[in-house]
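Entry 14. Two folds queued back to back today. First construct below, sequence then structure tokens.
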Amino acid sequence: MTMTKQCRLFLAAALAMCSVAQVQAQTPKYHFENEKLIQVIKQIEQNTEFRFLYREAQLSAVRLSLLASADSLFLKLKRKLIPYQLSLDVDSARKQVIIYKPHRQPPDYQKYALSGYVVDDESGERLPYATIAWDTGPLVKGISANQHGYFDIKNMDPVSDQLYVRYLGYKTQQLWLSEEKLKNGQELTIRLQPKPFTPDEITVQDAQDDLAADSALEGLIKTGSFSPLGENNSIRALQTLPSVATDAAVTNGLNVRGSSSNGFRILLDGLTLYNQYHLFGLVDAMNAEVLRSSGFHYDISPARYQAPLGGTLSLITKTGSLNQFNATAGLSNSAASATLEGPVNKGSSSWLLSGRYSFIDSWNFPGNEDLIEYGLDVNRPADITSLLPQNNAMNLLKQNSRIEQQQVTGTNADFYDIHAKTYWEGVTGNQLIISGYHGSDQTHQEYIRPISEEETASFATDNNWNTSIISASYNMTLQSRTIASATVGYSDYDASYFKEDFRYQLRNENNGNRRDTVRIFPLGLDNALADFSLKQSLSTTFDDFGLEYGFSYQNLIVTYKEQSLPDASFRSRRTSQLADLFVQLNITASNIVHLYSGSRLHYFSNGAYLRWSPRLKAQFFNNQRFSFGLGYSRNYQFLHKLQFYNINSSDFWIMSNEDQPPSSVDYLSSNLKYRFESGWYLQLESYLKWFHNLRLHQLNSGLLSSTFTNRKSPWFYNNEGFARGVELLLRKQIGPLGFTGTYTLSAIEVQNDRINDGASFYPDWDRRHQAGLVAEWKVNSQFILYASTTYASGAPDRLNSFNSTERDRMDYFLRTDVSLQFNRPIFSGYLEARLSLFNVFNRNNPWYTEISPVHVTQPAMGNRPDRERRIAAKTTVYDLGFQPSFSINIRF
């Protein structure tokens, strides 16, 4: 072959190869036939470095056919979206694609605006109250999404084009937006990726939900860090805050800024949860695994909440994954649980089902049986303070005395709760949500106790409650700036408590001689409550302010029965309607002051009470290094939870009526916040509260002799109170170590003309000083260590509280808890395990004082042998001692 022929063949082969390469280059890389847009997006994300921002429900009905090369892909995809009134923007430098529904604006529209949703990147669920922040030179501004995960920023003038989107338990998303996009006011869906192994937390809400959550408080309240029974305890975790008083492990609720537990409410998906605990306050009534958002309001509450005298914990449950099936299984030393969730119609509807059941009485884990005895007031740990009557002879006999012990012969204790939810979302963002909850406690214990020096008898204590909640909510956008939400719900609650050997505290006076003693007699309490509720709210965002307004309605039926020593048979059945109108105006455009003004008008039909609840708060220099605020509100409460000093069981409710006005509080608060350049965060708050018409059960009012005359009910309703306090919080994060220190100086005094001769006295929940230290150490990617120490000065000695002096108090409270959390990926999910030690040093922390029967051995005298006597004595009952617990959760 000649050289010329070889060159010709080589040239022909080269031309052929170029032709093939050209054909291959022109061959489409992407080919879809009537494919769901969400699947198209996932295919593109797998084959490229681009990541999409979108909302599932907006795209779930979109199908398209597409034939495109890599170069023409986004241009052709954008054209395909036009019939669906969707648009697409590509940021090639940052590998980011945004699919959104453009807003049509007039040509002269120049204001910067942005709206949209914040959702979970994996499940597609909306993230309520997520924070959207942006830099404006020396300041960082921000807002929070609403309870539906929707945000609307108007009149935005950023120096930077960067947005930072945060949500507890999720990775912060940083977005770059062009000036043109901000001018057009596009709707944007922001997708946040969940962090693995993130503990459940509670957000501390400021005056309003639309105030950006303060990152300095993130991680402050971990719901599973210190729980005596292994289960996450959202309510107990709030005691980390200086505004919440230290209380015993067995509790009926929280004392927030001077209020009794009657002033604390829990809302579950917007409806009141009428029993807050399982097992005497040791376990939350709701399963933390299903909670999506938790917000605590203890200061000036938004007008959308009725706002009791203390605080409100608002819980929103998950809606279920829109994209994939997920499951969680859990085991602790007290209960087993399982949660299932998944899509009904992928991308637009979902379901969730969760259940938890206890086996505390059937598994002999260390301390389980003792906890049941402790909760039912059987063999609670106690010491004898003094024998009665107090004199020198009795003091000599104290060393030969002992507290009566009961012999337990039978125990039956269990609890369970069930959560269910279904969710539908339309293309336009409208939502239909149906949720349900049912919880129950059944606790029974039998025992033998002495009834004299030589005789014994069998007794029993029962504590039972059941509650069911069902609600339906519909949320829709009426126009670009107004969102309407409607909720209808029904709650049914019943509770009973019966103790055959309740110890009544008595004081007998005769000719100036006083004798304190105790009498054993049954106590029975029965309660039923039905609540039908309806709420309609509208929220409108304007350029310089936000406006929320609406109404709520409740039809209430409350039945209360009591069988006791002073009341052989008390019965009450009350019905009433509660209708409210509310409006909330939030002005946050100024860099100097953010103003929150709310108003709520109540009408309560039983007594025809018309009451006005104004609420006002001003926060100056918000989101700057130094900020301060002032607030005032007047809150009313028409339903009341009775509190008993030694009964920590079911919640028992009564109603205001024509003879007993609603309770109220006039509330002044102030705050000062400072962020040091070194990273320290300082928060100083103070409050003054004037209470009116508080409820106080006669068993909590001291010794019974003061309550036997002129009573129409077993409780006092015309109690006045005055509370004041100063609260300090200091935080610092140093690498993997985080520290939080708190201190509270506070006081609460109560006055009633028929108690203590009309002089004021300190109630059981008053503590003068309280301090706490919480530390968190992220040892590595798998281990997190928590430690907490709480100190509180002594609570009033209830048997001497009417003396109103500081020396008539019990000993101080000091408790240290430790928790170790372990996380590790397994298979397609991950494992989370926790070991907790409650009251590590097993300190006897005084809880309350009472008069109890004790046995005394009188030494032999002459021919008389030793003699056993049964007399009354003043005793100090202690809080729960050392208690280990564990929990294991597997998510897949």
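Second construct, same run, same settings:
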Amino acid sequence: MTLISTRRRARWAGALTAAATVVPLLVGLPGTAHAAETATCTPSGPMYAVDSAGKLLRTDMPTPLSGGTLATPSSIDTGWNGYGRVLAGQGARFYGIKSDGLYLSRRTSGTWDIHHKKISPDFGWLAGAAGRDQITVDRGDRIWVLNNEGQLRAHKYDLATEKWTGDSGKIIDQGWQRYDLIVGADAGVVYGRSATDGKLYRSRYDFTSQRWLERHVVESLADWRQYTKGITSIGGDTLVGITASGAAHYYRFDENIRDFPVYKKTVAASGWQNYTNVSGAPDACRLTANPTPPSPAAPLESYSSTSAVQSATGSLEFAYTDNIGRLVHGRMTDPSDFNGVQWTTVSGNEAFTGRPTLAEHSDGRVVITAQNTSGSIWQRTQTAKAGADWNNWVDLAGAMAHRPVTAKTPGGLLVQFAVAADGSPWYRIQQRPNVDFMGWMRLSGSGLAGTLQAVTVRDGVQLFATTTGGTLSTARFTESGTLTAWSGLGAQNVSGAPSVVVYPGYRIRVFANDGQGHVITAAQTTENGAFGTWDTIGGLSADGAPSAVISPLTGLTEITARGADGFVHNTGETVQGSGSWRAWQQASFEASATAPTAFAYTNSSGPTWAYVFRTADNQTRVYQVQQGFARSAATSDARTSPRFTGGSLPRPSED
């Protein structure tokens, strides 16, 4: 058995042990291999160095796919001793770092058309010995920076506009303080060297889908701290390590076989320790397979239900997509005045589908998230709390097959969940409150179908997912990125996303349609406990998903559902927490084209609840519980059904 195969077996054993319990945020499982993964290279791989006199030197590695012997470098420029760190970039670009910032040079056809041009006052801290290994450039000319807090950022300078791109500097991941060195080895491929034992870990980020295709996968158990003079790459998953004695060792990793077909090949025996900087041309080799997952088209969905929440300022917020793909937002500043709703079509010329989600940043700004018909997840945020204006749409990509759901962790971070075309669950989370989201990260689990449901619980977010077999499964996500094992809620089939209520003590009850028109429910008796058997709430042939809410007036669980007759019906518990239900009543006398959404809120008369639906011409109706009647009924007979007052919200403008 070879050393490499032993190393690979140990790596997989560790990964499988981690997968058997939980999947933490900072330990990734091996990514999906590409069947035809290969690398291709230019005839020679340029390697650059800076000597103590400040000369910029170049030598070319012959046969870079397998690694050829490096000749003695020759000078191509002088005056580079002012930089503490020099990195080669795409297309013979060079980035030099001084204490006062970052400089760019470019060599074209043997001449310098850009020479020592300052492009940023930042990055100066990376020029010294303490920070020089915390910056790298990949084949896509992305400048990756690992700061001292463990946050990983990617920057890109656009030569055509002479500006940094709009996504430059965003935090893509965190928790990378485990590494004392990072090196970009292809577009989005970043290796990290463990600061504690020198093991080498590989991560791969796809900027198109904004997915971490893999994170922190150990690929070498050797101690890479032997390369005290640095590690660089010429692209294509290659690595060149420089030892203290000046030897240069060459490696090439193959993602398809998860191993090194070229391992620790000596391409220079000595002399490279004398250079102050060594950097390979990151675009000499490249991985040929396209790692970007296809973005499944999301067809328009007719009569998807409306989202409704109350903001921290007290306003009622509504959002829906109509049958032609417009995303419409409504704001009712005074929750007692349903005639005062202001509608805005916020989609512009983009088309969206399915039910959007409404959430709120910790600073009170409302966030709309929805699925574009392209398959990407898009998000738009208020410019200011209680303001009328919105920031521009942000394309969060994802290439997800099903619409997202947004939840908030107990610590106040917004997190989004969605299911990909292969049935795998994914999430992306804020790095801290009120800022952008980091990249999409895969969660454990497979065989999921449809939209996830998510509710905040004591120590995380409880997820519910429909499986491809039609049953319901649940798992708990924590802010640190761990996920408990998925647990099934029995053999009962369900149709669509369930409705979930959380009782005091964080016990959960779920409601769903069984696909045969029956509203069914199951509940926990203890926090984090198993769910009991499914019960049918008989008496209604339901069309679509039910929507449940705990009435703030009575403490009873109330359910609304659209019947096969096209009208909204209501039932509720006879006694708090009993799981016994009143007879269904027809709660509205105008036909509903959508499933209803029940929601609790507070108006000038105190806490209450209501439900919202839309008619066949996409006009919004809100039916409010008559608060006085509900209070008196609660003290006399819990079997008395609530009474509702219906209202037609003003139509959105046609412009």
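Quick look at the second one. Residues 1-36 have pLDDT under 50 and may be disordered. The first helix runs from residue 3 to 19.
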